[in-house]
Amino acid sequence: MTINRRDFLKFSAGTGLMLSAGAESARAAKTPELPPEAVGILYDSTLCIGCMSCMVNCKKANSEPGGALFHKNTAGKIPFEYTEEDHIYDAPESLSAKTLCIIKALYNEETAAPVNPGEQSKSFIKMHCLHCLEPACVAVCPVAALQKNPETGIVTYNKNRCFGCRYCQVACPFGIPMYEWEKASPSVVKCQLCNHLYAQGRYSACCEFCPTGASIFGKVKDLQAEAQRRLALKPGDVYAYPVKRVDGDERTEKVVDTYVNHIYGLNEAGGTQYLFLAGVSFDKLGFNPRITDQVYPDFTWDYVSHVPALIGALLVAGTVTRLVTQRLDKKKNDADQGDDAS
């Protein structure tokens, strides 16, 4: 099959237009509503004991086939991050290409005084992807490697589509997506709520193996209602906290601690499917106070919407450059042949 210059130029220009039109239609189709079967996690830092069972079991579950950490060339290996001194236990310092979920501690070593009056003197916080209702990472991905499931709302990643632009890393207001810099064929790495376990009748490993009920899995609407119930409780009350699943039968009775009167993730960044309760101000737990209720794709779209048109323009420019170069080379070869003949 051959293609002439005119057809190729038409194809190149048309590609840019189609990419641009496709991106615009994708933006227009986005909806801010909670998906009908949206699932997520409620994390209550007042119940967390920092055992890190969630971290370890997250790595184990996601190192299985279908998991976010699974690679064929490292099948069967769990990517623990050990300290330099020993290889006894997993000790990541932050989210990374090997760590999808992390527990961090906040406390005042010198005085053990509360961070703010009336608040706890120490707290744990568990960080992983928040699965935004309007995820900026999905909005900026030019090849749809990141997508939000229309039913469950889980933000998933397809490594076979990704070409490594890392726009998602720049766009995410929470700094969640990580990149496998050390691999020859790298991928973006993030929590996908263990969606590969659902076919087995299981759910997110961090909730499945949480012994205290600090992390519970369920429908987002049920989690929102549970969070509201807890905020209505008084410190010193005894409450039967759900363990593992918000709709499960397993409960644990505990004395209610003091809560900050806020559900983080209910509105931040347009709303998320990972919700937080805490006894410490959220800005003291590492959350960026500059994150508002603004939907983040609104910030990024003005810039990213020009990317498809830019790709089309580069295709045209590259084609023209190639054709001009070929013509100049042909003229030079003809001139050289003329000189040889004379």
Automatic annotation (TrEMBL):
Record's subunit section: Heterodimer of a large and a small subunit.
Gene: hybA
A Gene Ontology molecular function term of the record: metal ion binding
Protein name: Hydrogenase 2 operon protein HybA
Pfam families assigned to the protein according to its UniProt record, in alphabetical order: Fer4_11 (PF13247)
Record key words, sorted: 4Fe-4S, Iron, Iron-sulfur, Metal-binding, Repeat
Domain 4Fe-4S ferredoxin-type: 39-68, 120-151, 153-182
Location of the protein in the cell: Cell envelope
Gene3D superfamilies: 3.30.70.20
Location (main, coarse): other
CDD domains, sorted: HybA_like
Gene Ontology cellular component terms for the protein in this record: cell envelope
PROSITE patterns: 4FE4S_FER_1, 4FE4S_FER_2, TAT
PANTHER family: FORMATE DEHYDROGENASE, NITRATE-INDUCIBLE, IRON-SULFUR SUBUNIT (PTHR43545), HYDROGENASE-2 OPERON PROTEIN HYBA (PTHR43545:SF1)
Superkingdom of the source species: Bacteria
Family annotation (InterPro entries): 4Fe4S_Fe-S-bd, 4Fe4S_Fe_S_CS, FDH_Electron_Transfer_Unit, TAT_signal, TAT_signal_bac_arc
NCBIfam families per the UniProt record, alphabetical: PRK10882.1, TAT_signal_seq
